[in-house]
Design goal:
By secondary structure, the chain is of the alpha+beta class. It is built from one helix and four strands; from the N terminus they run ββββα. It has a four-stranded antiparallel β-sheet, with helices on one face.
Length: 79
């Protein structure tokens, strides 16, 4: 999980799901969106909540989390 100055990434367990879902919240606990796996793209994507704004630092942390999730997913395929 990525350490972020402003954001928390919380893995949500969903029974029967092959890939994790990550809730993205600010440090105050407000929901900002989530990261899910998009099967047709074979990649993790960020789905922001309506009317949310992000600066470059937050977007950078989200990109790092996306890449981290992708690497972990690919490592699981090689097992």
């Amino acid at each position: 999980m990525v350490e972020s100055k402003y954001l928390n990434f919380v893995e949500v367990e969903v029974t029967g799901r092959k890939t994790p879902i990550y809730e993205v919240k600010n440090k105050s606990g407000e929901y900002l969106g989530y990261i899910i796996f998009r099967p047709s793209w074979r990649k993790f994507v960020f789905l922001p909540a309506k009317d949310t704004l992000f600066d470059a630092a937050c977007l950078s942390d989200i990109i790092i989390q996306l890449n981290d999730a992708q690497v972990k997913w690919k490592a699981g395929l090689k097992k």
